[in-house]
Write a structure and sequence with these properties.
The complex is a heterodimer of chains A (about 45) and B (about 475). Chain A contains one helix and one strand, in the order E-H. Chain A has one helix at about 10-15, and one strand at about 5. Chain B is α/β, with parallel strands linked by helices and about 475 residues long. Chain B is globular, with a radius of gyration of 24 Å. Chain B starts with a strand and ends with a strand. Classes of the chains: A alpha+beta (about 45), B alpha/beta (about 475). Strand 1 (about 5) of chain A pairs antiparallel with strand 15 of chain B.
Chain lengths: ~45, ~475
Amino acid sequence: MKHIITLNDMAKSAVTGGCGECQTSCQSACKTSCGIANQTCENKNR
Amino acid sequence: MIHQYKLNGYNIILDTYSGSVHVTDDVAYDAVEGLDAGKPRSEIAAQLLDKYKDRGVTSKDIRDTFSDIDELISQGKLFSEDIFKDKAFDLKNRSNVVKALCLLVAHTCNLNCSYCFASQGKFHGQQGLMDFETGKRALDFLVENSGLRKNLEVDFFGGEPLVNFEVCKQLVAYARSIEKEKNKNFRFTLTTNGVNLTDEVIEWANRECYNVVLSLDGRKEVNDRFRVDKNGNGSYDRIVPNFQRLVKARGEKGYYMRGTFTHYNTDFTKDIFHMADDLGFDQLSMEPVVTDPSNPSALTEEDLPVIYHQYEILAKDMIRREKEGKPITFYHYMINLTEGPCIYKRISGCGSGTEYMAVTAWGDLYPCHQFVGDEQYRLGNIWDGVTNTDLRDEFKLCNVYARHDCDGCWARLYCSGGCAANAYHATGDIHGTYAYGCDVFRKRIECAIMIKAAEAAMQAENGQAEPENR
C-alpha cells in the first residue's frame, strides 16, 4: 500500500545555483506581485 | 517547517526547506499532523486505529506509514531544517551587477485607466518621452554594469511604450549591433495596452521581443470600467482585435494576457474563461489590484473567501482542460517542482534596487517601476551610476530573512518575501509585508501545487513515469 507519493532540489541548488542568468521575475508577466515561484531555472548545468 | 492542506480530494504536505511536495493517504496525513503537533507515536497510532477502524486499517498499516515517514525524514524531505538562514546575510556582500532594466520610454499614455499605479504614465510627475541618446546610454550602462552575466533583460514600459515606438525600434537595433561584441544576449519584453498595435509593431514585437505582456481585464464591461481613453470611451473593441492579430502571428513565442481584477469583479475566473474560450488566448495572467484601501475598487477582507473560491474554480477547470487536451497557462499556477528557482533566487527575491532597476525618460535610476517619482528612492542616474549606495545596500538586504513577518510562513521560499514596493505602500517599510497579498499568494501556491498532484495522478493513470512512490 502506498501511503505517500513524493512529487519531486533546494539544497542541491545551494551548491550549483546562483548563476543569475534566469529571467528577472518582475519582467515575466505581472509587474505587481512577485512571480519568483513561477519561474524555471535556466542553468542546464545545475 | 511543513504545511498540510486538503484540496480537491488531495492530501498535500509541503516541506518548506527541502521544497519537497508529498501527496498522502488519510492515515499518513493524520500521522504527520500528529508528529508536527508533538504527539507521542503511541498516542497517534491509537487514535489512527480508532479513527480508521471502519476502513480496515491495521497496526501494520500504521507501522508501515511511520516507516515511510521516517524514510522521508532521513532523506531530508520531511521536517527538514532551515539550512539557508546564514546564507541570507551573505547578500550584503554580493556584487553590484545589474542585469535587467525597466525602460520607461514614455511618461505618457493614450489611455486613462483610473486604477493606474503610474498615474497614466506620469508617475506623479511630468509627461515626457525618452530620446534615443538616453535609451542608448541606458543600454550601455546595463552592459557596463552586468559583469559576466550573459542574459540581459530590457522591458519597454511606461506609460504606454508604443507611444514612443520609433525609439523602441532604434534601441533594439542598437542592442543587436553590440551584443555579439559584448558577449551579451538581450531579451526584450514589451508591456502594452494594445492601442497602437499596428501590423508594423506586431511584426517587430514578434521578431524582437522574448515576451509581450498585453493588458486586458477580461469581459468587455469589466475591461471598459477602468481601461478607457481620455474621453472616457472603453478600449475593449479597439484592443482585442489587435491582441488577437499579434497572438495569431506570434507562433510559439511567449506572451501573457495580463488583467487586473478589483472589488468590482471578484468573479474574475469569468474574465479568464472569457479570454480563453471567447477570444482564443491561452497564456493568461490575472492580478489582484493593489491600491489605497480607501479606493472603491480596492479588494476587501470580505472579498478574500470569494477570491479563494475563484482560485479553486480556476485550478479545477485547468485540470479539466488538461484532461481534454486543451490546456491553458495561468501565470501564477506555473510551478516547476524539480527545476524551479535556486535557493539564492528564492532568498533574495526579484532583485529590485540591485540587479533590476527602472530608468526614467530622463535617465534617473529607481529600484523598480513602482518607486519611480518618489524622490527618496532615486538611486542615481545612467551617466553617474548608482550614487545613493546606502539605498542600494538597503535593497540588497531586502530578502525573505529580513522580513520578520515571514518567520513562520510556510510559503516564504515561494514568494521570497514578496514585493518590496507593495510592502512599502502598505506599511511604509520595504522590509514589511503586504499582508493581503500574502493571503492571496498562499492560496495560489496551494492551488498550483494541487494541480501538480492532479497531473501526477493523470500520468499514473496513463502509465507514464510515476513520482517517487513508497
